[in-house]
Amino acid sequence: MERDQPGMVIVGAGECGARAALTLRERTYAGPVTLIGAERHHPYERPPLSKALEPECDGLTLKTIASRESLERVGIALLAPAEAVAIERAERHVRLADGARIAYDKLLLATGATPRPLPMAAGLSHCFTLRTFDDALAIRSRLSAGHRLAVIGGGFIGLELAAIATALGVEVTVLEAQTRILQRGVPAEIAAILHKAHTDHGVRILCGQAIASVTETARGVAIRLADGGLVESDLVVVGIGAKPNVELAEAAGLAIDNGIAVDDRLRTSDPHIFAAGDCCSFPLALYGGRRVRLEAWRNALEQGPLAAVNMLGRNESYAAVPWFWSDQYDLGLQMAGLADEASDIVWRDTGGGGVLLFHLAADGRLLAASGIGSGASIGRDFKVAEMLIARQARPPREALQSPEVKLKRLLMSDSAS
Amino acid sequence: MAWVEACGVGDIDEEDVIRWDHEGRSFALYRSPGDEYFATDGLCTHERVHLADGLVMDDVIECPKHNGRFNYKTGEALAAPVCVNLRTYPAKVQGGKVYVDIG
């Protein structure tokens, strides 16, 4: 396969880029497919990096999406590690750091997002962010019984790490600038359940805490809080969100708007270039075309293949329901849809301590659902909720509320608008 | 042939799934919309999540996490991220009980 015969080029070999590449071959595209990854590994899944290990595993291993051999077998050229440094739009080339130019007929940017650094902690040893397998190895190698971990940021990454660290006998402190953990997007009732699970396991959670300084000590790190408090630890992990990797696109003059801006077909402002996954913002059909950027595994999983089919000439619209999950201790949280325009919340007891919240618009339309329960126990009901959201259903409140009414029945006779 | 009594026919709702554990192994038992009974391994092949918490629609079981879908009658993996098929076991009904050949 000649590198200069134009084919399909994908920058980013994570979940999104890898799934796109595989889809191109599944759809029998026979031209060159080049998958460029910044990391040295073959495509792997990120969610397991911050979750508990599977029972028989005694160390973190890559959860493979596609091995090098399997990619080779279907004629996908994986260049990893490799760095794309420029998109030459007029000539339709991607230029790599080593000077190589890869010609494209269509290009997909699946460059993902990079954890936001904490400027105060820049350059300090013992301070980490978590995005890659190598980050996870570095962090986990420092989690031993009796050690102290400070987590900056009470979001999902930080809380999941707190959970696995306590299980390893590590003393954990979580520092959150807002008045509660998970303030961005998670209902207070559900955040409270998780807060309690953490404190029940000995995690110290300090909310409303601004950080004054972060300094290296003989043993590790000292975090001075604005109120004068001091948190000393052996290891610090910063989990304060991530920025979409738009540099390549921006330098090439593509439209940027909270990520690489694409339409509902995942097309950028250049007809030959697509973007998908954590790096892009797109209009959500289900919410009146509202532009969002979703940093979520399933979004990457689904947008990669959609971009691929559209690169092959189809015109399919991305119309999925946003969905997200988190595992902390034995609790599984799931969230679907966008809840911020809801004016009414209905609770449903799912048994065994689990709860499902339905977020309704003023006209009764189900906009979103959030839930938490042990293990995957809310899974079944949650899937039904997702389907109702997708149908823009207006389910009766009493049915949502009563455990005696099987939610599945609402799918037979939903009061869709 | 190793038929083991697993449950009563009424223990599973129509178009639904339950968990059945036997001698250290865990299974998922299904009752299809047509009132037939099926059995598969209990754990999703993507990650070790039990399928008994999942939603059954027609002949498909959807893993309660991560979207994976299988045809529970044949074990076929239908949607990413699952790519490994689910192991199935013969099931039969006799005298109001469901029996599984655990092989």
Structural description of this entry:
The complex is a heterodimer of chains A (417) and B (103). With 417 residues, chain A is an alpha/beta fold. Chain A folds into 3 domains: 7-114 and 242-311, 3-Layer(bba) Sandwich (FAD/NAD(P)-binding domain), CATH 3.50.50; 117-238, FAD/NAD(P)-binding domain (3-Layer(bba) Sandwich), CATH 3.50.50.60; 330-412, FAD/NAD-linked reductase, C-terminal dimerisation domain (Enolase-like, domain 1), CATH 3.30.390.30. Helix content of chain A is 22%, strand content 29%. Chain A has 10 helices and 25 strands. Chain A has helices at residues 15-26, 68-73, 133-140, 156-167, 188-200, 247-251, 297-311, 379-390, 397-401, 409-412, and strands at 7-11, 33-36, 76-79, 84-88, 93-96, 101-109, 113-115, 127-128, 148-152, 171-176, 204-207, 211-216, 221-225, 230-233, 235-238, 242-244, 260-261, 273-275, 280-284, 290-292, 323-328, 331-337, 344-351, 354-360, 366-374. In chain A, strands 1, 2, 3, 4, 5, 6 and 18 form a 7-stranded mixed beta sheet that branches. Chain A has a 5-stranded parallel beta sheet with strand order 8-15-9-10-11, covered by helices on one side. A 5-stranded antiparallel beta sheet of chain A has the order 21-22-25-24-23, sandwiched between helices. In chain A, β1 (7-11), α1 (15-26) and β2 (33-36) form a beta-alpha-beta unit. Chain B has strands spanning 3-8, 16-22, 25-31, 37-41, 55-57, 60-62, 69-71, 77-79, 88-89, 91-94, 97-101. Chain B has a single domain, classed as 3-layer Sandwich (Rieske Iron-sulfur Protein). In chain B, strands 2-3-4-9 form a 4-stranded antiparallel beta sheet, with no helix packed on it. Chain B has a 4-stranded antiparallel beta sheet with strand order 5-6-7-8, with no helix packed on it. In chain B, strands 1-11-10 form a 3-stranded antiparallel beta sheet, with no helix packed on it. The model of chain B has no long low-confidence stretch (mean pLDDT 94). Chain B is an all-beta fold. The N and C termini of chain B lie close together (6 Å). At the A-B interface, α7 and α8 of A face loops of B.
